[in-house]
């Protein structure tokens, strides 16, 4: 039975796993790397760190006694979306990569809308508005602010596609990740020549576009030696981390929705046709399933808000957890569980890094609202968890409003591992949620894509049907009624503060 590798180039680290055709996981390994923020709102990484982490994790996985390198039949790639790797004619990295959560390009987003005739015209061209995280405004930022670097530019790659180039020597991407550049004609699944012309971007700097299970190249001799694998292993297109994670969750049929509570939060809906929100509040991208699309809402700091709380305000819980040899989140969750739903009037807005869905506001900032002497640490923690979950519901409500059926919500990420947070999600969303047997996310999804693309399965749908099953169900409790009353006020709080967020940003910038 063949072995398939899935490699996910994440923001905090790279994860590689090996699976069999039956979906069983043989081995997994993770390697972390740093993230730099040289100025407020900037977020950068060194692409070489991704490649070194790939070498390290593949070697570690293949050193496992269950993995024989001669059995490896295919490799799939996933990665953080929207990031930009700029290469010169010697194929060397020009500068650190600008990441998905980098917020420096607000002026370039305005420029894109101006050049294309406005937001609605842009959405009609590429199904999405210009957002600071996307790749196209990053290219314009390089041209506007680092012209010497821009003059050297010969190739722009997404994070996983930089690793693909190191693996195969090919300049290639695939439709799901390319959708997040803002430069893809999402309906036709090819680069938008019309938009490239308006932005004066040479199409030659963009890689060839493949479908996600399509073979995009073979492992080169140089890479094979570094990874200690045979030469010529097929490398399939793979997927952006959200589309790949959806495949890993089996979101490949109409009516299936995934709610992933990771550092960011994503509500992801499969669609057989291209469906677009005319206001651009959610993304419409090509799916990693051939000929299909997806609609996706993104919360920039979902689980990341609780991580911030742990790092900045829960040092005592971290120390106690170390002594007890348990996860600090377990102690934080226990405190939150002692507080009633709705936190006795305390709200948390999870806009630590701005917000994408539904506000598309890089200036938005986080806040506790409603604090009183009544509130303690448990209230603060639960409010953070509720705030992140309310933000996820914002995404879900837009998807429902687009007449996309929501028959089943599959949970994943850190918010799916906690029974307390699973129950909170069922109550806030107002319907049953489930978990599945696969918990490895994007790496698992692209391993399945590699299996489908190299002939182990007829297609991606068959791969998911034969490997993924439901393992738990959580139905709404009586606390659902509390959230029916508290959620509408949560939505009003952003509107009340919107103008002040911009003023705060100007004060910080000294304007």
Fill in the keyword field for this structure.
511 residues; alpha+beta; 7-stranded mixed beta sheet; 5-stranded mixed beta sheet; 19 helices; globular
Structure description:
The protein has 511 residues and is of the alpha+beta class. Helix content is 41%, strand content 21%. It contains 19 helices and 24 strands. It has a 7-stranded mixed beta sheet with strand order 18-19-17-16-22-23-24, sandwiched between helices. A hairpin with a 4-residue loop joins strand 10 and strand 11. The mean pLDDT is 95.
Order of strands across the main sheet: 18-19-17-16-22-23-24
Q: Low-confidence stretches at least 5 residues in length (pLDDT < 50)?
A: none
- What is the overall pLDDT average? 95
Helix vs. strand class: alpha+beta
How many DSSP-defined strands?
Answer: 24
Radius of gyration: 22 Å
Shape: globular
What's the layout of helices and strands?
Blueprint: E1 3-9, E2 13-20, E3 25-32, E4 44-45, H1 47-62, E5 72-79, E6 85-87, E7 97-98, H2 106-116, H3 119-126, H4 135-145, H5 147-152, E8 155-157, H6 159-168, E9 172-174, H7 175-179, E10 184-185, E11 190-191, H8 193-199, E12 208-210, E13 215-218, H9 221-227, E14 234-236, E15 239-240, H10 241-248, E16 256-261, E17 265-271, E18 283-286, E19 293-299, H11 303-313, H12 315-324, H13 328-337, E20 347-349, E21 367-369, H14 377-401, E22 408-413, H15 414-417, H16 419-429, E23 433-436, H17 442-453, H18 460-467, E24 470-474, H19 480-508
Helix pairs in contact: 1-6, 2-4, 10-17, 11-12, 11-14, 12-13, 13-14, 14-16, 16-19, 17-18
